[in-house]
Amino acid sequence: FQYLKRFDQGCNLDRFCYEALSVEGSPAECLQLFLLHCGVVDPSWAELRNFTWFLNVQLRDCEASVFCNPDFVGDTLNGF
């Protein structure tokens, strides 16, 4: 949710990292963003769960990868 919220606001996500146990927004806002970005017109709860699980895994791996660290790669992958 934190990534999607900042993405919709046009923020630069290159240096953003998820803050564990931090709470932002309301449950309704979170659900609205998931519905907006999941890519399915009328998703089931299972489809929303799969979307959020997949997104979470990808973002966690991205944060852990040295190749996605802006301090390591500099501006060679700007906006990637």
UniProtKB/TrEMBL annotation:
<dbReference type="GO" id="GO:0016874">
    <property type="term" value="F:ligase activity"/>
</dbReference>
<dbReference type="GO" id="GO:0016887">
    <property type="term" value="F:ATP hydrolysis activity"/>
</dbReference>
<dbReference type="GO" id="GO:0002040">
    <property type="term" value="P:sprouting angiogenesis"/>
</dbReference>
<dbReference type="GO" id="GO:0005730">
    <property type="term" value="C:nucleolus"/>
</dbReference>
<protein>
    <submittedName>
        <fullName>RN213 ligase</fullName>
    </submittedName>
</protein>
<dbReference type="GO" id="GO:0016020">
    <property type="term" value="C:membrane"/>
</dbReference>
<keyword id="KW-0436">Ligase</keyword>
<dbReference type="GO" id="GO:0006511">
    <property type="term" value="P:ubiquitin-dependent protein catabolic process"/>
</dbReference>
<dbReference type="GO" id="GO:0004842">
    <property type="term" value="F:ubiquitin-protein transferase activity"/>
</dbReference>
<dbReference type="GO" id="GO:2000051">
    <property type="term" value="P:negative regulation of non-canonical Wnt signaling pathway"/>
</dbReference>
<dbReference type="GO" id="GO:0005829">
    <property type="term" value="C:cytosol"/>
</dbReference>
<dbReference type="InterPro" id="IPR031248">
    <property type="entry name" value="RNF213"/>
</dbReference>
